Amino acid sequence: MEVLGQLRSRRDNHKPVRMNCRDRQLTTPAGLALLWALAFPAVSMAEDSPLICFGVEPSWGVDLTQAGSAQFTAPGAEPVSYSGAATRNELLKELVWRGVPEAGGDLVVFLREAACSDGMSDTLHPVIARVSTADGRFLAGCCRIPATVESVSDTPLEGTSWRLGSLGGESLSALAASPRPVIARFEAGRLSGFSGCNNFMGSYSVDGDSLAIGPLAGSMMACDEDVMAIENALHAALSAVNRFSISADQLTLLTGSGTALAFTAEPPPRLGGVTWEVTGYNNNRQAVVGLLGDSRVTLSFEEGTVSGHASCNSFRATYSTDGSRIEIGPPATTRMACPEPLMEEERAFLAALQSAVTWSLDGNILDMHRADGERAIMAIIKR
Fold first, then answer.
1. Contacts (Cβ under 8 Å, ≥6 apart) of 160
2. What is this structure's pTM?
């Protein structure tokens, strides 16, 4: 096979690097492996991810479905079993499986999570593989997730909040400092989430491992240029998605053009452990309003008790949850007297809080709704 002769320019301040694959140091398996590691730097798979890797021209196979072992097959040769393990090279941003047989040299498999075409069909696979053998061969191919692994994943596509980790092999460094991650959630044919600057929503349909996402709509805030570039790329990629796969808590979405989106399941949301700063409440006149001037309203949920500051007085009430359902008891308050605008705000906020029957979290935002569907409370994590 023709080995890559020119490395792609890294998206930083470094200049593109040119290397001649005829150079003696780069025609060894180790040299070719170095070329691969430098050219394709992103992978986010777990070290024990089960995979079946294969090549078409030439035909070869590596079975990585059993932890601690691999089986290599090639035309005209008996299968060879290897004992080994995968390690992550953080410097080169890759996952490498290395194994040794009872006799002979090492087998090294370099793995990168990205859309991979086998060149013989329209099927896209979620992992690119390069294999270095002891006899000097350097082989290229794809890996697929075994159907038995995908079907027994404990993490469903629907009802899970998926946090974006990479888009087309690019990490989201522009959003690393953001307090709110990029999230996608699939629920009963409706896709919703946050794409870095704006919330978005749309429709979707699933047929086996095929996934079709309809046109996306959402808010229209403007943010920094690098964040908007990622948001626009995400929307374009989501609209072109045609397949998905789930392994453990990892979701991979693939587009027809080969772009891969890698997500990780977010842990279940928790109300407790933080203080929430209220930004809006329902005034019971069909409007959600903000707070007065320097008014301060907070919420803390701990062991069946919600407490905080309600504009003028401190308050406390009981609460219970069942999934996304919540029931809040009558609040008790201290007896301070404040100017009437603050007292009116306090009464309206406490009434809105007690009217809430559902809750949800979107990043660092708490959203509570009444039985009639109207929003009751909006809050963010206090910093």
1. 185, 186, 251, 265, 266
2. 0.46
